[in-house]
Amino acid sequence: MKETTLRVDPGFVHHRKIEAILGKIGIEIINQQIVSIPLQTPDWRKEVLIDQVYSRITLDFCRVNEIKTLQQLLIDECGQLFCSIVNILPCETIYNSNRAILECKSIEDIDYKVEFHISSNKVRSETLKSGLHRGGEFAIVAQYHTREGNTLIFHPLLIGYPYLADSETGELLWKEYTNFYQLHLEDFQEFEIVKKYPLPDSTEEMRHISERTFKKCLGKILAESTPKDWGGESSDFFTSHLHVREVRLSAAFILKGPAKYSPMTLSHLGKNSDQIVRLSKEPVDVLIVQHCYTILPVVIETLKVFATQPSNPRHYCVIDGRESLRMLKAFNLIDWAIKESASSN
Prior knowledge:
Layout: E1 4-13, H1 15-35, H2 43-64, H3 70-76, E2 81-88, E3 99-103, E4 113-119, H4 126-134, E5 136-148, E6 151-166, H5 177-181, E7 182-183, H6 211-222, E8 237-244, E9 247-256, H7 274-280, E10 286-291, H8 297-307, E11 315-319, H9 321-330, H10 334-344
Parallel strand pairs: 4-6, 7-11, 9-10, 10-11
Antiparallel strand pairs: 1-6, 2-5, 3-4, 5-6, 8-9
Helix pairs in contact: 1-2, 6-10
């Protein structure tokens, strides 16, 4: 498994705002890195390298200070700064207005409208400018500015395309960051046996398997203890013994049993999706959501946003009811799980 990192190719960098946020120490680090740029570097290339320095230090600042995602900021209704991958609607005025307004695509269960106000002439990359004109997903670090009615206005510090890069060489990879960070059950070596079993057509048997029992099944498969749940936990199950392509990974799970035997929406995950927020605070390599029934795209998209935060990108995985059932069949645990659940009730 190639060691990779999520890089932001900065096309918009607001140097003054970044320096105001980073403070004296941050500015000193930036200056040290700029001084290391060779004197013979052409001016156009030097500008690019300086923007990359500001980008790297800004993302490091966000990681060290655990800056929130946009979704978490909106859920908490507090905070000044966020770092996220944001879905931006097409901006028709980016080419013909000095002051452009970038509109964020509406976010499920969030009532606020979000706008990003920028000076068009600060978008120095033609690639980014054309991308903002078309709309799409961009890495953004932005500061809250003001509220006008139901609209929250942010001033960006950094906007760029998210790319995967080789951690050692810095070379950009061809694979899209979203595809790289999403994992499936069979990708884990501990569960790869499920590939030998067909995906069930129905989740009906999962109706009879409790959340507590499914947790015990995970414990049996991974030889992990399964202590009882308590109210203050950030996740339902934790393991540090998963492997993907020989690389050891830790993971935290949210588990949802048949108490709500219906397609998973964000309402299954607590008020304001706070269970995903808490899950994202776990110091693990993989964030996993499991449910006994289907999992709707809005849940997957929300999990992806929290997992792929540019300052702290991690893998994510969803295991729906059919996948859960296939796993139990592969490890010959279905009958035991149904009996165990019945006896516990």
